[in-house]
Amino acid sequence: MMGYMQIHRRINALKLAGACAQLGARMGTTSCISGLSYTSLRYLLYDRNSENRGRNMASVVFWYEKASYAEKAHACMFATIFMRIYDLHPAGPHYSAGEALIDSYTLYAERCHSTRLVSIDRAFLLACHLKGIWKQRTTSLLLHRCSHCGCQSIIHRDDVVGMTTQCIFCEILKKCTYAHVSRLFPLPTRRCTSRSR
Ligand SMILES: [Zn+2]
Question: Are 157 and 142 in contact (CB under 8 A)?
Answer without folding.
Answer: yes
